[in-house]
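[Meeting: bench + compute handoff]

Bench side (C.D.) handed over the final construct sequence. Compute side (W.E.) agreed to return the predicted structure before the next meeting so the bench team could plan truncations. Sequence as handed over:
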Amino acid sequence: MKFFWSALLLAFSLHVSGQSVEKLKKVADEYYDAERYLEAAEFYDKVISLSPSDLESRYRQAFSYLKSTNYNTAEEKFSALSLISGPHQPSSIYYHGFLTKIKGDFKAADSIFSTFLQLEPASQQKLLSLVKFQKAGCELGMRLQRAKPKYKLTSLTDVNSDQNDLGVIEWPVNGNLVMSTTRKVHSLQYYDPKFGDYLPSLMSYGKANNNKWKETSFFKKLNTRWSQGTGSFTGDGQTFYYSDCNKESTCKVLVSTWDGKNWTEPAQLDTTINMPGTDVKHPFVTASADTIFFSSNRPGGQGGLDIWMSLRIDSSRWTTAINLGERINTQGDEITPFYSPAYSCLTFASNGLAGYGGFDLYLAKQLSFFEPKVFNLGVPFNSTLDDTYLFLGKSGYLSSNRDGKELDVMTFSYGSLKEFFEYIMTNDAIIDFQYYTASSLDLYTFRMDDYQGYDIFFPTGRDSAPPTFNTTTNLINIHGTNVAPGELVRLTIDSRTEILTLANNAGQFTYLFTPDSLSNKYTITTASNQNASVTEVDTTGTFYEYSFEKVYFDYGRYQLRSETIVALNDLISHFDQDNIVMIDIETHTDSRGNKDYNLTLSENRGISIMKYLLAKGVPESKMRVIAIGEEKPLSEKDSWYAQFFNRRAEIIIHTKTEVNYTKPEIFLVMRSLDLNLVSQNLGIEPAKLQSWNGIGAKAVAEGNTLRVFDAEYRTPSMRNLINQKDIDDNFFLYTVKPGETLESIARKFKTIEELIYEINQLEEELKPGDEIIVML
């Protein structure tokens, strides 16, 4: 968020003429690397206006237009670059040809690709194979253009929207159409800024009295905040197999049963289908559910997503999945299978076989899947963009973005399956595998699989907590005795770094160090200046290192807050004491007060945590306090909320074996709020917030922190809650004056309306006296 706001403000609140090319290019490159191509193209435009000879920026701008599907502008840019000698010329020629091809001008595209071959770029072998692949697609396109299509596609306008609508299938129970859509279906649906849509959810339509399709609610129960993709039904419509993808795991196939009124709680298929660590999606089951086809990137395939098949053993078990082989699967992606047992025909979409462009639809026909004849479905089923999700029921359906915008559902009448398949196989569209398969994963398409995979950004806010594994030999274990029980012991390294611990009831203390963290110049003192007897023991150890969550303190105090106590209790419950090697408690203060006072306050904060953990059973020998004081602030800003986040303790835990736990997001309450309002802001039940934070009251006071573990929280209004990650953003609280509007406030502070609207989550017009956050 910090990068996004700062870059946005740089674009809209400052004059380009006042910026250096280097700064603009840095921002453009950051957007480009983050795959934020719309913003990247805009910043590269400013760079190029100041430095027209910057070919790297010109190339990246052209590629950004391509990635953001602004094909006309991308073609113009690549066409110009293709005439300039240099390292980008070969790939510019390729993309110029590719963009010409997706316009449907196969002859011109073929000529451009021939120009590439004349360059003989010996160092561009991967690109060379792509050019040959695209030329094969041009030849196929020119051949099929001569055919007169028998079928006519029409847009299913009753169900299409201005978002992506895809994967229509028919529900045998009542004839409803079921599909996935990236429009907003429910309130907690996650938004995907990479493509500018919500994550796909299931949606259904039934025929109304006026013979138009009207939305129904049969499948809403199966939706979550993540991605759901359509699949297929058994012949009686009582069992539904579909895809489910979320951040916590890979994509899986789920199954649910219709009980006459509702769909049952979905269950995952066994691990022979849902192989751990791989994506499994686009399931198709035969009418009797004795065979399942699906797409997966599991090991043993040809590359990318392949189509696999498995046979049912009994009600819950399936045979080991079989890859359908190199005649169907390529190094590209094969997705959305549909199978007709009566005619032994499999249809699927691929971007690795010769075609018009993007994903094309294909038909594989033979008694054996491993030596089939494969046919491109041709016009009108394939276009120069993406065509996927063919379904043949009472009507035919497919999903296409052939208009260059979002995916829409197209429909057609086809008579019978026999008639349809025979037409495809006699239409001169068989694929010559000697020339017509891709040998690279670098084919550019819309990446339809991203919509049902987890290959896109989700603003979930959850921090994973992976350990940093360290194998260390010759650990230095410092033992001390002859100290008063409970006395504070101070180890000073090189007269600078001080590390604290407490003596146990027997007057003993322990420090554990790695050799590179301890010099020979250390001293040990006690609070009573009592001379300790010290010995060093070299041992060998191996441990995992975890950065536990940060905990915070009130101004000038070292007493533990309620949410800190809950956090420390979580530490005890997640980390077994026998597994703990050492706990480092690094404590900090804000910059108010003098340096010596803050260092002492920092020490007292660490000792408070240490004593609490001691009371919970963690021995003194496994804990040490590293007091930092005011020297390492999280933020240099002087706002009260930045200073609050500086008053913290960071806890590092070393363990013998790996531990699974989740770190929360931390929010600071900006003003006193009713707990129910906080709950609404975050989309999280009040009881969860109370449990995570030790809150008993129905109100949450200004200055409280909230620990949030649920990855599916909503982004709250910054007027109410600020994420610790956002403390360095330059914002302040502003009271709206009479006559002011959102537009006038944006002009006043030289920012943009959308920025104010977004961070405040405004739902109605501003009124005098309203308090809003303004970011500069």
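W.E. noted at the follow-up: Confidence is low (pLDDT under 50) at residues 1-19, 432-466, 468-473. C.D. will use this when planning the next construct.
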